[in-house]
Design brief:
It contains 3 helices and 10 strands. By secondary structure, the chain is α+β, with helices and mostly antiparallel strands.
């Protein structure tokens, strides 16, 4: 099992941390800012990541996103999460709002357990691979009630 926790300053409006990205062909690797996005099906990188690593596209595909459909480049990369887990992924190139270089999509998030909390006004998110169990706040609350009754 491998896990990590990222603590954000205050209540965060997005979940970001640093990840490694490597070109498996050339072994070039660098650190980039990743945005964890449950509304994104698959991981996405920016043109900046592709240029910075000298990635060579393996093809093109049509994507549908918030800005409509587009024909985009497709790459193979290895993402290293803060817990050291390395994930080989086929990714597409997207346009960032300027606050991220890599979108971590549901293709990665569904590999494990993902949890967000805002306890004491501080946003924390945690991820572990592989999944070890179900998080069910209703069951946790019911268990607390039964021990205090």
């Amino acid at each position: 099992m491998a896990s990590f926790t990222t603590t954000c300053p205050g209540i965060a409006d997005c979940l970001r941390n640093e990840v490694g990205v490597k070109d498996p062909a050339s072994l070039n690797d660098k650190k980039f800012i990743a945005l964890w996005d449950t509304g994104t099906t698959n991981c996405v990188i920016t043109k900046n990541v592709a240029l910075s690593l000298g990635l060579v596209p393996i093809g093109q595909t049509e994507t549908l996103g918030v800005n409509g459909s587009a024909i985009v480049q497709v790459y193979i990369i290895e993402i290293t999460l803060p817990n050291g887990i390395k994930i080989l992924r086929q990714v597409t190139e997207g346009i960032s709002s300027g606050t991220w270089d890599v979108l971590i999509g549901m293709d990665v998030i569904t590999m494990g357990d993902f949890c967000v909390s805002n306890f004491n006004g501080v946003t924390t998110f945690s991820f572990r691979v592989p999944s070890e169990g179900k998080t069910d706040f209703v069951q946790i609350d019911l268990a607390k009630q039964s021990t205090t009754a």
